[in-house]
Amino acid sequence: MSPTSTPEGLPRQREAQLIAAAARVFRTGFPNTDRSGCPAHEALQSVSRKKRGSVESEAVLEHLTCCSPCFSEYERILRHDKLSKNLKILALCASLLITVGLVVWFYAFGGEQGLRPPQPTIVQKEASPPQAPPTQFEVALLDLRNRSTVRGEQGRPLDETVVASLPTRRLDLSVYLPIGSEEGQYEIQILRTAETPLVALRGSAILKDHNVILQLRTDLTEIEPGRYLLGVRKASFRWTYYPIALVR
């Protein structure tokens, strides 16, 4: 016998289709608008839960075959009972999982904590030394792209109009080098005259957004405000000087 066939030889799929077709007929084929001879709702519940005697059950089931409203109500009762049964099973499984989880947690953590020896009481904890605040650097920009150098190779005159002013603070300084400058290593000096630099810096200039930019970090807090010269050169090339001002 095929596993997909009933004892009478009817395929199970065909059997299911016939049952579904019969159910559709019972749902709509017998309106019974007057609800003549309809059993009470409790009687339908008893039959669905097999609490009635065989004679009473047969009478109710026979009525269902000729009354579509009662048949639909009976189907709703069956679905509700099935859903309630599934919910009870889910609730039982959830409670079992919670119980097992609590037992595992207790043996994994609770018992271990109970076996730990008591920690010694700390009478006094030595205060850690205060931490110095991080050094703050102020962002500053020095634009030399369209600036002219001072007259004279040594850059001694300080009466020229300054090209920029810088605060006497710790600076993250971005120097935009003159148009036509190339990438590479540069030297920067801040000085009164070319022979006495007060600040000497080195850095690598890179091309960014069509500008050659030199990124430097310097501390100008020890220099007095006033007018100075800014010396710039690439590698071993000659120095060029720009008048600048340092301000508080």
SSE layout:
Layout: H1 12-28, H2 41-48, H3 54-64, H4 68-115, E1 138-143, E2 164-167, E3 170-176, E4 184-191, E5 197-208, E6 211-219, E7 226-234, E8 240-247
Parallel strand pairs: 1-3, 2-8
Antiparallel strand pairs: 3-6, 4-5, 4-7, 5-6, 7-8
Helix pairs in contact: 1-4, 2-3, 2-4
Description:
The protein has 248 residues and is an alpha+beta fold. The chain contains 4 helices and 8 strands; from the N terminus they run ααααββββββββ. It has an 8-stranded mixed beta sheet with strand order 1-3-6-5-4-7-8-2, with no helix packed on it. β4 and β5 form a beta hairpin. α1 packs across α4 (68-115). The longest helix has 48 residues, at 68-115. It is elongated and about 125 Å long.
Helix content: 25-40%
Q: How far apart, in Å, are the first and last alpha carbons?
A: 103 Å
C-alpha geometry: elongated
Q: Count the beta strands.
A: 8
> Which spans of ≥5 residues are poorly predicted at pLDDT below 50?
1-7
**Could you give the order of strands across the largest sheet?**
1-3-6-5-4-7-8-2
Number of helices: 4
Averaging pLDDT over every residue, what do you get?
Answer: 80
Structural class, please? alpha+beta
What portion of residues belong to β-strands? 25-35%
Largest sheet geometry: 8 strands, mixed
Quaternary status of these chains? Answer: single chain
Order of SSEs, N→C?
HHHHEEEEEEEE
